[in-house]
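Regression check, pyridoxal-5'-phosphate case 428:
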Amino acid sequence: MLDHNNKYTREYAQELDEKDPLAAFREEFYISDEQIYFDGNSLGLLSKRAEQTLLKMLHSWRDRGIDGWTEGEYPWFYLSETLGEQLAPLVGATKDEVIMTGSTTSNLHQLVASFFTTSSGRNKILADELAFPTDIYALQSQLKLRGLDPATHLVKVTSQDGHMLDEDDIIAAMTEDIAMIILPSILYRSGQILDMKKLTEEAHKRNIVIGFDLCHSIGSIPHQLSEWDVDFAFWCNYKHLNGGPGAVGGLYVNKRHFGQTPGLAGWFSSRKDRQFDMDHELTAATDAGAFQMGTPHVLSLAPLIGSLSMFHEAGIDRIREKSVKLTEYMLELIDLELKDYQFIIRNPREAKMRGGHIFLEHKEAARICKALKENKIIPDFRSPNGIRLAPVALYNTFTEVWDVVQKLKKIMKEEQYKKFENKRGVVA
Ligand SMILES: *Cc1c(COP(=O)(O)O)cnc(C)c1O
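Current build output:
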């Protein structure tokens, strides 16, 4: 047996990996021996299963032509629904409440166009000042389309420390003029998890519709959207879900809202048995499928078939359990090894409030990230001074966590970052 008095040795990290019940999944991914990939919360890696289902889909086009819409192992005409059903357990929904369609941004547009009404005299949307920019741009343009000035009609909850949101501040901002609330489930920088259940309850007490952006939580933490009675949600599938660059996104609409006319309709909003009637009067689907618009991007859906099968086998609870252990271990190592180098940890320390990534601030962040890359570690730089490091449960290891912290320590100690400019590249 190893010396358990020291949790902070590489041998101990290796022992954690040996005991890891999810360890086998790493073998299913394309992982370079030369690098440590800690950017799975920006773009997840390719798995062999995702590759296979993409190739199958490509071949169904090759072999069947137009008949691929209705024939073959995964008929394209039903693929958005089939995948919605496959994903539903990850958000705690029934299969008809989820559809794979659009992107985060287009789904947000669709949901606001469908569920923002000013008929009750309420005409403002509540968001937060730490929101991902695309969400804010979408909300601003939706308000403008209704003739409302975003400067006065988009209310942003402020953050007391610039990194986290206080749920009491959010609740206090749920005033009588708010018609709709859009919040992230997990903040993309600090990784803070918002209490979706509590916020939904408070919003509903005040007759406000509430929706969540799940980009950083889907595939990383469990959700119970239906039990919490969330009105709607939307997300991308290329981060923790490893659906590939530009993978088709997803949305959830609570059963209570079935029958709601889609704000942005198209022929794929149709009831499937009526779509090819080619009628000019839309008979919208009576489930989440109504919020689709046009022809699905079949090849950008295909990898998700393989990828989601891994989430089912691994189980989101086990994924979350390992993820918490990885980030906890990493934070402990950062406390211990990097204490002399002016890093500030911006994550919540409490595990139940923390998502799947670490967010460090440092005034030299841009060039520290370049030095990490030179050391074959793939981080994620967030302007102006943030370093995101995501040890992903399905394919990263405790040993990698240990190695990354040691590499970072060496970079700081030897001032390796000083040979780079402290400026970001075009992407991140
Ligand atoms: C990644 C991300 C997006 C991306 O939106 P796309 O429409 O997929 O480009 C939006 N919101 C959040 C919070 C994100 O993390």
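Comparison notes: Residues 316-337 form the longest helix (22 residues). The pocket of pyridoxal-5'-phosphate is lined by residues 103-105, 132, 134-135, 184, 188, 213, 215-216, 236, 249 (CB under 6 Å). No diff flagged against the previous build.
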